[in-house]
Predict the 3D structure of the following.
Amino acid sequence: MSEKETGAAYSAYVLGLADDALIYSHRLGEWLTWAPALEEDMALANVSLDLIGQARSLLTHVGSLDGTGRSEDDLAYLRDERDFRNVHLVEQRRGDFGQEMARMLWFSAYQKALYAALADSADEQLRAIAAKAHKEVRYHHDHAAQWVVRLGDGTQESHERMQAALTWVAPFVDELFDDSGAAVAAAVTAGVGALPSSLRSPAQASVEAVVAEATLTMPATPKWHSRGGREGVHSEPLGFLLAEMQYLPRSVPGARW
Amino acid sequence: MSEGTLPLFEVFVRAKRGLSHVHVGSVHASDAAMAVRNARDLYTRRQEGVSIWVVAASDIVASSPDEKDSFFDPAGDKIYRHPTFYEVPEDVEYL
């Protein structure tokens, strides 16, 4: 396979990473003015901006890998729901603050393991993006951990709600570590991507350490778990999210600041 | 969680090695560890610092505006305390 063909084969893998960051950044952006305190508005917006930065670099890279030459904006704003490759976890509607911290705890633990593993990627550009992003997501994980510990080890109500939040997020976790799909196979074969299942053990260890410190317990294995995001099969909330995110560039094509 | 239940912390940021920590503002936080993180997000967004201190606002003991006369005015006519009688070398930026 030529270098070009290899790039095209694993571009869908990179697109999955990009869409996770893009969609979660949008969900976090929705917290602005709704967080428990002004300070938390800023903190969540900071995390959201870090993720937008990652999404921009990754999407731009996808555009050159897949040979279509699409820009980051083309990919973010002009694709339809079935063309998005993010996991279900990041597209779920904004719940209460405990749920958001549970989601951020898992997602940042996953990203931390992911970007650490991509330090060995054969793709130089991906290596560089991962090196920068790794520092960012370590902070995201720390931020979520601080809150999970305070809510878990806080009042009786905050403890119960934080425990419920961990149960809420559990069915969406497995999908992050799912190895199936042609994109993952192509990326791993090319020495470019990290096998998702290999990220599970470090990510789970980070989460479990926080949960234990927070005097909470890991929820039982859920009977149902989400699937299909990497193939473009999404849950209902993504359509509404995209409608809002893509509205402007679609109604005013080529709009500029 | 209303603002009234979260204690206030004063924030001090050191812009770079060799400078002092300077008061930049305040944040609300549940405790000191969270205050450092909130301060990081609010006051070092543009790489303003390499180090942050926070201190509970309630722990600061301050002079009272009512005491301004006795505290500060007596220094007003003692010009010999001001370093105006020698030249500052050009390269000393942060004196």
Remarks:
- Chain A touches chain B at residues 36-40, 42-43, 46, 142-143, 146, 150 (CB under 8 Å).
- Chain A has a mean pLDDT of 95.
- Residues 94 and 100 of chain A are 7 Å apart (CA to CA).
- The radius of gyration of chain A is 18 Å.
